[in-house]
Amino acid sequence: MVLLAFLSLIGIAYAIVGNTSYLPGKQEAANYVLKRYSHSSASASFDIRDGRISQIQPLGKMQLVVTRYTQVENDNEAATMAFFFIDFVTKYPVRGLESLNTIGSSLPATSGPAFALVSGDQDEYYIIGGASNVADIHYAELHWLEGTVTKVPMVDGTFLAFNSDGAQLAWVVGLDEQEKLLSDTLTYNYQINFSLSDYSAIREIFTDEGLIVMGAFSSDTPQQQECVELTYLTGENVAKYLADNGALNGQRLCFEPGADEVVTPAIITTVGDQTVAGGRILDGMVEQVHIEWADGLQQTESVVNGFYFTQRPNTSSTILKISVRD
User: What is the pLDDT of residues 277-292, one digit of tens each?
Assistant: First the structure.
């Protein structure tokens, strides 16, 4: 009995220690990330080249590792896309290094918008990052939703910022070496998180893999518009959502509603082995919609809480038309 109790205590201690992460070293985090991306591109139809670490910043028990790459098609040596990733790397005593989350974006290799922006939540932190191809931008001036303004340096064409007070980025502008505003660099953040209290309408669809949440809300960034969002939640995020303790940030469609507009375009994404699509109905009297797919499939779906929704086994087909069912 004593031996069993002793072994049980060892097992409990092992489970606690083994699942407690800590801050890894910068160099080992950098090596881990570069190795991950070199392996992931080995069987792809494109080649990842010029991979480099742009910057690394510690945050809590994580190293935020920012990498930049150039994508080259295997049958064409011309660079097709420049892109960047931010990995949230931590370390466990038994499992070793792990990336808790990865966010990233792409931008044209030689031209394009002033900034590409990405954001994510991890533990108690909100993390925002960006990249730019504009060589004259030396600082990013960040304008937050609650009205404050902060300034961060650009490092190898990228910036990082984070906070734990719930503030989110509204927009960013570029500053030159003398910290003067550069024209044509204003970039809005279209990845603002929303919670249940922000939605004017909501629909929940439970699946075998998790939970799909559709929400509608109004936005005044960058101009007054109506938005529809479709978020797919699994595991821990479902529990957080059901406890009203999780921000929502999924596929989003915003539009300026016309006087006669009734049906919004569909948001289409993949959930498990299903292609799912959904949108908003702006006329409360509409009960059904008719959906026509490019491959000939036609569906009639009910409107629930002002949303239409459909799903079918994974398909490359697109929706041609969505109309109100008489």
Answer: 999 998 888 999 999 9
